[in-house]
From TrEMBL:
Record organism: Mucuna pruriens (Velvet bean)
UniProtKB keywords: Signal
Signal peptide feature range: 1-16
Name under which the protein is recorded: Uncharacterized protein
Domain of life: Eukaryota
Amino acid sequence: MSRFLLIFIFLDFTLSQIKENLQVQQQLIDGERKVSLISTIIMATKELQDLTIYPYKYLTSNPDPINIESSKLEATYSSLGEELQRRCICPSCHLDNLESFSELLANLEK
């Protein structure tokens, strides 16, 4: 009887090890998928950034300083516009107040 009990305990221990190994393998597979997804996103982001750069960067090795400056200004204005839009949204009701702000600026310019 004790022999069967020892065999049962051994089999139970072996099954728990197998379950643990399967869990570790699944975690490894999930981690590899996440790394693959992140690297794909990073590559796509870099490609998108490359596509948004002005063509003169690819056409000439010595780009025109005016084009570089205008590119920097456009990036600055774009980020400022996004920041202005973000700040014109009411934090409590999430209402976009950009139109009323534009009207106020137009009245101030007159």
